[in-house]
Amino acid sequence: MGISLRAEGIKVVKGRLQVLAVDEFDIAPGEIWGIIGPNGAGKSTLLHVLSLLERPDEGTVYFDGRPVNWRRQEIMKLRRQLAVVFQEPLLLNTTVYQNVALGLRFRGVKGPEMGRRVQKWLEILGIAHLALRKPWELSGGEARRVSLARALVLEPQVLLLDEPFVALDAPTRAALMVELRRLLQARGITALFVTHDFTELPLLADRVAVLLEGRIVQTGRPRDIPWPSWGPHPGETWEESPYLVALAGSLDKK
Questions:
Q1: Tens digits of per-residue pLDDT, 183-199?
Q2: What is the domain-level CATH number for residue 232?
Q3: By residue range, what is the domain housing residue 194?
Q4: Is residue 86 part of a domain?
Q5: How open is the CA angle 172-30-182, to the nearest 5 degrees?
């Protein structure tokens, strides 16, 4: 089962610019949250704070109900319970198998246990047949699956994703998000992903936070939040979007 995350009174300042000012933000165990906002809204900064990669200038992060102590040993201990997937797959110049096994090696998992877990996630994500391929032999969708396998093989309680589906074509992106949602729900993993693409939200998120100029200005279910002014169809909702309705219908038939 996933764990809870909470941000309280968070402020991040870079230079003279305040890039993040979040009064309260709660993620319950097992929830999948999407963070939507235009470029420069502070989405990645919020993800970095919640993934314990960046310490805020003010405020408190609560990890499983306990305030985070930012001492190095404590942070390293907590990070072992989460995994992060970045915008670029960042695959090493080695085989798919070795890329997926990388995090396990860092955490001291070796031998049969490592092999079992790597093979398990290669099969779950449908890339076992690619185990011996190198990164340049993969399509964009295949590389994203390898990146997800490398994170999920760690069996995290929290998964954080920074625009992981960017640059994929719409059908590949949608299919991957629907598959990821099923995996997260089946395992009760708490998850947060950031995006600037409103069409991704109903396919993956339980709840959404809209971030503007570093502040959360709205939260709710994806279907209840109108498309923002920076989107392709301002003011439209999920039910009114022909693209999303058609896409959801085609996925339901699979």
A1: 899 999 999 999 888 87
A2: 3.40.50.300
A3: 5-81+157-252
A4: no
A5: 30
Q: What average pLDDT score do residues 59-73 get?
A: 95
The pTM of this model reads 0.85
**Length of the chain (residues):** 254
Residue-by-residue DSSP string for the chain: ----EEEEEEEEEETTEEEEEEEEEEE-TT-EEEEE--TTSSHHHHHHHHTTSS--SEEEEEETTEEPP-SHHHHHHHHTTEEEE-SS----SS-HHHHHHHHHHHTT--HHHHHHHHHHHHHHTT-GGGTT--GGGS-HHHHHHHHHHHHHTT--SEEEEESTTTTS-HHHHHHHHHHHHHHHHHHT-EEEEEES-GGGHHHH-SEEEEEETTEEEEEE-GGGSPPPTTSSSTT--GGG-HHHHHHHHHHHT-
**139 plus 55 within the same structural domain:** no
Give me the pLDDT at residue 228, please: 61
* Residue 88 belongs to some domain of the structure: no
- Residues 202, 39, 33, 187, CA torsion sign: positive
Answer yes or no: do 106 and 133 share one domain: yes
Sign, CA dihedral 38-207-175-142, equals: positive
Cα(237)–Cα(14) distance, integer angstroms: 35
Q: Which of 136, 155, 174 is the last residue of a domain?
A: 155
Instruction: Output the pLDDT for position 253.
Output: 44
Condensed to tens digits (0 to 9), the pLDDT of residues 75-109 reads: 999 999 999 998 777 778 899 999 999 989 988 88
pLDDT of residue 174: 83
CB within 8 A of 127, min separation 6: which ones?
A: 96, 142, 145, 146, 149
Kindly state the average pLDDT of the residues 105-133.
91
